[in-house]
Amino acid sequence: MKPAPFEYHRPRTVEEGTALLAKYGDEAKVLAGGQSLVPLMNMRLARPANLIDINRIESLAYIRDDGRALRIGALTRQRAAERAPLVAERCPLLRDALRLVGHAPIRNRGTIGGSIAHADPAAELTAILVALDGEVTARGPKGTRVIAARDLFVSYLRTSLDPRELLTEVRIPALPAGAGWSWMEIARRHGDFALAGVGVVLAVRGRTIAEARIGLTGVGPTPVRAAEAERLLVGRSPSEDLWNAAAAAVRAAVTPDGDIHASAEYRTHVAGVLTQRALREAWERAREAA
Amino acid sequence: MKIEGTNTLPASVETVWKAINDPEALRSCTPGLKELKAVGPDSYQATLQIGIAAVKGTYAGTLAITEKQAPTHYKITLEGTGGAGFMKGEGIVDLEPQGSGTLLKWTGDIQVGGLIAGVGQRMLGGVGKMLIGQFFKCLEDRLGGNA
Q1: Using the beta-carbon criterion (under 8 Å), do A259 and B1 form an inter-chain contact?
Q2: Phi/psi of residue A106, nearest 5 degrees
């Protein structure tokens, strides 16, 4: 369990980091928290010739509120975001989902940017970014660009980031005032990757749903935004029939794969069940807030 | 792990049959194929580099076509071993005329073992499907060019 030989680089600034990436491109991997990359390297499934350790770039660890979105530095530890009062206040959906990312020791090292850039098809953060129309910032040889969540995730472990670009910031829009939210997932054991997971946000006006967001993980090559289910919900009053209809729309929108952990049929079914539960919980929370 | 799918190709059954038996088409359309050497009729030695993102493995093995019923049916068998583990795949291909084109139906059974299966189990089925999809898309482009 030792990695294949590699060249180790430890930039101290974003500029040094991007210069190294510009030089080595797809011959290099960025090491952030290392909770996915290091096991893959130790098993020699990944053999990058160059490892660019960004852990000394302290300017990449921060959480700020720009009034519209939480701006989270790519190197922010998942545990730090989970415990940040600002996250609890502005996007409790993110806090709740973070609690289910691996285990506490994993979150102490694992970073927000690393999880997004790794793009595991069952990661919680990718679904939240997609559900809330989040964005990421990337710095590369051609300068800085902002990538919308819907343009970021390409396939299993693949994003539209260029190998020479460094993901520097993740922007997660704050929930509307008084909105209800819920994160639900099912895993074989606590801390395992979810067989299926869903994040829901409901903004409410009186007895009516003014805005709905639904994002799912673990049910396809990329996180899934359930746009059709969202459309069904907006302008309607909550009822079990409505939750059922939304769940059916979610099942129609997902294309999970089966494996030894769960069949495709099971994952599809569970995606609907979790959506119903999450809608109920989000609605309750929105009512309590009103 | 069983996977299956269908593709509609813009060419006659005979043309599609020729393409899926053509070593040149197999060579240019098999994702990650580094080398394909004929060792007998319908039997090849192959080197494949398959992976997603940073996770890549090189596999050396064999590819064979059997159970031929020209021009509508064959079985393709692929076996390979490499540092990341082993893989073994079997696919049945059936062709049916559909309008002026051809409906290609495939069912496959893939076994993957060793390190890669332990780590990548969750994604193997999906990635397998994606690679097979790439293969047929490439075939479709080749046939479309001839039509």
Answers
A1: yes
A2: -70, -45
